[in-house]
Write a sequence for this structure.
């Protein structure tokens, strides 16, 4: 039996016992993280440098890329380190920091996706009021609200979770620090109920955002189907489908991880689902948006062409 005051580290779930598989996971996670860093970095650069993308959607896409980078940089580096060196430990302070930053970025991302849904709703259903409802000040306030909500929720949950006395060992059944797995180590019934209450409040906020997203897209699709020209409908759908795909992937992976029946739960399945919702959305979001957003594709093409031309000129000038 141990308590939280004597705990100095936690044991994370190992991806595999065999050294060959550990190295395979190392290279796989390294490739995913590098691809996510490169893709999100390109989007950040394109939005910042191209004035055609200085729009509300471009501004929110920039913030979304920041949350994606934060999610990847919070969970993946420790997993890469443990797979490379064959360890499973994380310090008590490191676990608390990882939990805080993961909650901060993942909750902020969900609120940003909700705000981006509002952006699409106003652009398609109330186009004459777009400049008024989504001016630069309004966009800055909404983005600040999303980041603040993520910070406050993360702070409350981290403080509540790590104030619990832990007496059920230090082994977490997860490859990163997560609330449900830390709660399993608790021996305080009142503290456990307090954290469950906070989780219920956060889930209620998330459910409210989900209802808003569903309602908005019902209105969006009704408005799009009333557009007389096929070209107009195609353009409207092309601006909505990337956001809808990102929201669907985000929600489906989170819900499948947390709402799966206990009867089908297993360490391997839990590990796969946790990778799906913590690693895959931040990695795939840039590709989903860049595939359908013509302005973003043009900006990326222009930026990469400029960089390539600059490199060629530098090379030949040096020669």
């Amino acid at each position: 039996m141990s308590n939280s005051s004597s705990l100095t580290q936690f044991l994370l779930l190992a991806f595999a016992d065999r050294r060959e598989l550990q190295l395979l996971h190392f290279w796989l996670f390294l490739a995913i993280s590098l691809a996510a860093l490169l893709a999100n970095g390109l989007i950040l650069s394109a939005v910042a440098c191209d004035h055609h993308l200085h729009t509300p959607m471009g501004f929110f896409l920039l913030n979304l890329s920041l949350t994606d980078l934060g999610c990847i940089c919070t969970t993946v580096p420790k997993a890469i380190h443990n797979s490379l060196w064959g360890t499973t430990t994380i310090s008590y302070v490191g676990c608390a920091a990882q939990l805080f930053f993961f909650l901060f970025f993942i909750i902020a991302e969900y609120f940003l996706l909700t705000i981006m849904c509002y952006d699409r709703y106003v652009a398609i259903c109330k186009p004459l009021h777009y400049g008024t409802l989504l001016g630069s000040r309004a966009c800055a306030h909404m983005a600040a609200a999303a980041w603040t909500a993520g910070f406050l929720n993360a702070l409350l949950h981290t403080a509540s979770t790590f104030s619990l006395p832990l007496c059920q060992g230090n082994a977490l059944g997860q490859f990163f620090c997560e609330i449900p797995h830390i709660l399993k180590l608790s021996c305080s019934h009142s503290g456990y109920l307090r954290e469950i209450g906070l989780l219920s409040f956060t889930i209620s906020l998330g459910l409210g955002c989900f209802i808003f997203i569903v309602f908005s897209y019902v209105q969006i699709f009704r408005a799009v189907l009333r557009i007389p020209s096929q070209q107009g409908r195609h353009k409207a759908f092309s601006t909505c489908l990337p956001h809808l795909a990102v929201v669907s992937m985000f929600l489906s992976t989170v819900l499948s991880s947390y709402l799966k029946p206990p009867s089908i739960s297993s360490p391997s399945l839990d590990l796969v689902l946790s990778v799906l919702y913590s690693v895959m959305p931040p990695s795939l979001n840039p590709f989903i948006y860049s595939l359908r957003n013509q302005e973003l594709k043009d900006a990326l093409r222009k930026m990469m062409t400029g960089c390539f031309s600059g490199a060629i000129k530098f090379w030949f000038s040096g020669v």
